[in-house]
Each structure stands twice: as C-alpha cells, then as structure tokens.
User: What shape does this take?
Amino acid sequence: MAKLPPRWKLVGLVALALLLPWLPLGGSTNYLLRVVTTAVLYMILALGLNIVPGFTGLLDLGYVGFYGIGAYTAGLLTIHFDLSFWIVLPLAALNGALWGILLGAPTLRLTGDYFAIVTFGFSELVVLVLRNELWLTRGPMGLPGISPPVIFGHPLTFDWEFYYLVVLLLMVVILVVTRLEDSRLGRAWFAIREDEIAAQCCGINLIRYKIIAFAMSASIGAMGGAFFARWFKFIHPDMFKFWESILILCLIVFGGMGSITGTMLGAFILIPLSEILRAILPQAMFSARYLIYGLILVLMMRWRPAGLIPFDRAQENKAERIRQRLALLGGKE
Assistant: This one.
C-alpha cells in the first residue's frame, strides 16, 4: 500500500482540525471541545519550551513564569486600557521576550543544575510578585473581568470560536518553530546542544544564541498566557505554580525532546489524560495524577528514552548531520 506524501498528511490533519467542532463531540458548549482547546494551548506552550531544552539543550524549570507574565500582561492591558486582543497578543509576547532576556543575560553562563535552579527561582519569584503586589495584580483575589477577544466587531462567546482562534495561533507557532529549526539560527542551537566546545570553535557565540533561544521561548509562552487570560476571563497566581512547568516539560519528554511532532503528540495525549483521571479518581485523590504522570515517564525512560517520536529518528546518520551543521556554521563547503 502506497504511503501518503507528507504534504497530504498535513492537509488531512488541518482538515480534521477545522471539522472537529462540527463532529459529534463538537458543539457550541461541548466539554470535550474545551478539553481539546486546552490541549492545543499546551501544544503552543510545549513548542515554546521545546526551543530551550529540545533545540539548545538547556533545562528550563521556570517556563511557567513567562506564561504567567503573558497572562497578567494581557489581563491588565485589557482591563485598564481596553486594548484589542490583536494588540495585546504581540505586547504580551514582547514583554515575555524582554523578561527572557533579562533572566537569560546574567544566568546563561551557568550550566546544568545551576541554571535549572535559577530558572526555578525565577518562576517562584513571579508567583510571589503576582500574589503580593496587590496594587497591580489584586493578589489572592485574582484578576476578574477580562473581556474576550473581539474579531470584526464580534466578541468571541462560543467554545468553537476560541478553538479556531487557538488553532490559528498554533499554526503560526508551528510555522515559526519549523522555520527556526531549519534556519542558520536553528543549526547553531543544535550544534550547541550536541557539543558546546565544538560549536564555539566554529565561531558560534554561545551566550548570544542562548539568549535568543530563551527570548523566543519566553515570547511563545507569554503569547499562550495572553490567550489563556482572554479565554478564561479570570486569572489567579495559583494558576501559574511550579507544577505547570513540570507538566509542560513532561509533555516534551514524553513526546520526544527536540521533536516538533512529538511535542504536539505528547500534549495531545497527556492533557486529555488529566481530564480522564479527573473523572476516574475520587476528588480527594485527584492530585495523585502527578504520580501517574511520574509512572508514565519512568516507563518511557525505560522503554523509549527518546520519547514517542524521537528527534534523531529523522536523521539517517546523526554524526554526519552534526558535521554538516558545523561546517555550514563555519562557512565551509
């Protein structure tokens, strides 16, 4: 049986995504559609985080901080200035990128566990600021009254409208990260991930390229937070705790570190799994889902350590591909 070309597979997936709200599980107020919308949102977040550990090889435990910054940026700009969603979205992304640069510039000289600890501290600091700066964020009272996006004068109300909006954002993010992966910048990131010394010998400025990766990752995370704030219409500091970073990191590890397709597949499996566990487990044991996630990851590390769709599977000869990347970066033929 002949295999379909990748282009036709992509067309089929896009057609399925567009038809999903009108399938039997769809509808204007369908719970399953909201679950799928959440899964697509986490695909965006996972693709953003994947730039740092997947492309560059740095363990980032503070990604949820940028998610929270984007959400509160969108919420505050909407409440106080009544700005359009299409203005708030890039402003939130720029604010996330700015904080990514401010965090990355002084800390990216650190490596390994030291860098991970600093990013973890950043996420905790963001939550503390959101909880305690009452004059800005209302603290534990949360930030209510965030208006939904308005498109052509029509405020989004139904679940299928938010679904199409988040799918549009996902397509934009896929286009960006795919172009980055195949660009000179992406080759530099992969070279750094494989061997920092060899990459530096080829003339790659490690700090500069790492800061760019951190800024790009933070901007995508903040963009996801902006959508979440305008979709949920209420945000609270407890929505951006450290465990969210761990969950998004689990999506990447489960799907395949560095793999764009694997990252999306990981989100599409694990996020609905959380809702399934909510229905199965008693209310008092719902937090036990983290134990189940941990068990899944342990089994993955035992049987498929590279994830469901390993990034290296697409490479016929890993060593040769690395040499080609380094040669290109060094300006050789």
About this structure: The two ends are 40 Å apart (CA to CA). The chain has one domain: 29-329.
